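Query structure, 231 tokens:
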């Protein structure tokens, strides 16, 4: 015998018919945060996003024409490291596309993940000197029990979509998980990112402009704020 299956359904009530349509699936955030990997794609992206985010600083230390070499430097700097190194980097994807990144540091990381001479690009003396000055000006002591947001950057076409906020939420979680009581960062007082940090609960502990002319020569900025958040 041939059976045809029939699905029956209760008719919708008048109220049901007039109810605004409900989403079929709960809203899912388009932003996903994950740790970086040693893959060539992740390393290339880190080089691109860091150099784009801090283009002015790198161009000041070297020159505009050296920016592609700086990207190559980051790609090399993030290759062949121990697994813990990649746990320090977070990559934000927006609808599956790499959109932003940030790097968190803890006490002792400089010794764990030292700079390697072989990563340095083939720069002339002036550019190398510029980079050394930049490094000197941005070097930060990280006390025990504190996490340091080394850098955070989002590609310009993805800015203003909450990716920076989500990356900072992730750094808070990581720092808490590793037993830190606070998290801090340095930001130029001319950088609008300060508003984002304030909204995230950071407060300015001090502003510094030691020998501002010297600071300007080293990094292209005159004044920085130390911002910190209790976790
Ligand atoms: C700072 C930055 C990571 C924020 O990322 P984002 O995804 O746009 O952040 P959100 O969407 O979560 O928040 C937007 C907030 O970022 C800040 N912001 C916006 N444009 C910015 C820019 N060009 N540079 C710095 N901060 C910016 C503002 O505070 C903005 O909020 P507001 O408009 O209410 O003031 C991103 O703008 C960036 O990569 N800037 C360049 C690199 C940089 O300056 N990093 C910080 C160094 S300490």
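Result returned for the query:
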């Amino acid at each position: 015998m041939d059976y045809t299956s029939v699905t029956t359904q209760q008719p919708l009530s008048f109220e049901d018919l007039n109810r605004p349509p409900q989403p079929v699936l709960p809203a899912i955030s388009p932003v996903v945060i994950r740790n970086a990997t040693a893959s060539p794609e992740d390393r290339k992206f880190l080089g691109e996003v860091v150099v784009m985010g801090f283009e002015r600083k790198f161009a000041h230390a070297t020159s505009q024409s050296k920016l592609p070499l700086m990207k190559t430097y980051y790609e090399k700097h993030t290759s062949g490291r121990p697994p813990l190194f990649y746990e320090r980097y977070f990559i934000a994807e927006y609808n599956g596309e790499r959109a932003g990144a940030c790097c968190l540091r803890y006490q002792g990381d400089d010794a764990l993940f030292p700079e390697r001479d072989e990563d340095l690009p083939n720069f002339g003396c002036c550019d190398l000197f510029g980079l050394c000055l930049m490094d000197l000006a941005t070097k930060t002591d990280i006390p025990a029990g504190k996490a340091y947001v080394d850098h955070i950057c989002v590609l310009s076409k993805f800015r203003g979509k909450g990716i920076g906020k989500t990356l900072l939420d992730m750094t808070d979680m990581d720092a808490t998980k590793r037993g830190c009581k606070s998290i801090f960062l340095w930001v130029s007082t001319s950088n609008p990112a300060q508003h984002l940090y304030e909204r995230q609960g950071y407060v300015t502990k001090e502003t510094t402009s030691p020998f501002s002319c010297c600071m300007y020569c080293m990094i292209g900025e005159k004044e920085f704020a130390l911002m910190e958040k209790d976790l």
